Amino acid sequence: MKKIVVAIVLLTQFVLQAQEKTGAQQFWENLQKQCGKSFEGEIKEGASNDTFRDKKLVMHIRSCDKNTIKIPFFVGEDKSRTWVLTFENDRIKLKHDHRHEDGTEDKVTQYGGTSPNSGSAGIQFFPADQETLNLIPNAATNVWWITIDETSFTYNLRRIGSDRLFTVKFDLTKTVATPAAPWGWKD
């Protein structure tokens, strides 16, 4: 009987600890479960003439530290893009790191935003920050969001007040071969 009581107490403590995690913490843990894996995606929303159409789209959750996750996003042979997520003070920040083939930074890089609240386990929103406004004035009304669940990851962009909408969805049930290092990285 004593073992059953101890087991119930331990289980209750575990459940309470799990419930105490914020949306941002749960989202972070859900994303970290995919570390090291690569997935193919497809455009779900976007301009019919965008440069991503008819190209192989692959994301590689390449680097996961306690507070930083880096996800290179490959568009065909273009290895210039990396989504950089940072977890700090129960908020998640999204930045876009753009590089040239030689590894140098593009002139348009490090734009993004920070979640205004802890969000939820399955979705985080990132309204454009001041750095984005200073770098790309037209992007002042950008809102990015990322969703994750057991089967999919989506990266989304909406420019409020315009028709601009972009969504790429990755199938988390099927890994693909890991691509070579993105521009500016070493294997």
Descriptive account of the structure:
Keywords: Signal. Residues 1-18 form the signal peptide. This is Secreted protein. By secondary structure, the protein is α+β, with helices and mostly antiparallel strands. The chain has one domain (22-175): Lipocalin (Beta Barrel), CATH 2.40.128. The protein has helices at 2-20, 23-32, 130-135, and strands at residues 38-45, 57-60, 63-64, 68-75, 78-88, 91-98, 111-114, 123-127, 142-148, 152-159, 165-175. Strands 1, 2, 3, 4, 5, 6, 7, 8, 9, 10 and 11 form an eleven-stranded antiparallel β-sheet that branches. The longest helix has 19 residues, at 2-20. The radius of gyration is 19 Å and the shape is globular. The relative contact order is 0.19.
Walk me through the topology.
Blueprint: H1 2-20, H2 23-32, E1 38-45, E2 57-60, E3 63-64, E4 68-75, E5 78-88, E6 91-98, E7 111-114, E8 123-127, H3 130-135, E9 142-148, E10 152-159, E11 165-175
Antiparallel strand pairs: 1-2, 1-11, 2-4, 3-4, 4-5, 5-6, 6-7, 8-9, 9-10, 10-11
